[in-house]
Structures are given as C-alpha cells and as structure tokens.
Amino acid sequence: MPPKFSINPNIAQAETLSSEFYENPEIFIDCKEKIFAPSWQFITHSSTFNDHTIFPFSFLKGYIDEPLLLIKNEDVINCYSNVCTHRAHLVASEPCNINKLRCPYHGRTYNLDGTFNSMKGFEDVKNFPTKKDNLKSIPILK
Length: 142
What we know:
Layout: H1 19-23, H2 25-36, E1 54-59, E2 66-73, E3 76-81, E4 101-102, E5 109-110, E6 116-118, E7 137-138
C-alpha cells in the first residue's frame, strides 16, 4: 500500500511533497487508478468523424493504454472497449468506415452500437450470446 501524505489546508503551513511521491512506483500506480483513470480526458474533436465512423484510440497512451473505440452511428458518437469479448484481440486498429466490427482473431462481429452480432460456428449454441458478449460501453461527454 502506498504511503499516505497529509496536506495542510492552511496554505501558510503547507509543504511541498517529498521526493518519494515522485519516485515510488506504488504511488504512481495508485495515482493512475485513483486520479487519471476515472477522470475526464479529451480524446478528439467531433470533426474527426467527417471521414470515418470508427476511431480506435488508446486512453492516455503511454500511461494507462486502455484500447477504446469511438463509433459514430446515426450521427451519435459513443465509446466502447476495443477488445473482443472472446479472446481479447483488438477489434479495430485504424480509423475506418464500416457497418460492422469484426475481430480478426476468430471473426466475431459486433454492431455499431457495440452489441454482439455473430460468430461462425456458434449459430446453434444455447444461451448464446449474452450481454457479456457485447463490447463494454464507456461513458463520454459530448
């Protein structure tokens, strides 16, 4: 568990953070998880979708590196996980214009609203698909 730091609410008595705050890997991980991962981050301008319906990106690239997708579907932009729910392969690697997402690993397909569409050889499987087969939706502020 990372060490605790205290912050004096009286600025006249405040001190700078110790060097441990900047050097301790546990603190770095804790900050990523508690400060940056749940916070709002600018991704792109809506004009990105003038030429594409699918925009894959990495959330805070080089820091958190969560693969996500922005999808423009019927003039509404939504965000989803860019990881196939079957074998964790990226579903899209480049901005593009398509009407279905297809995982290159086993061919699982998804609709532009993130819902599972199909997977070859699984047409007659009972209790399939379920909600866990859909791409995870991520909240965005537009």
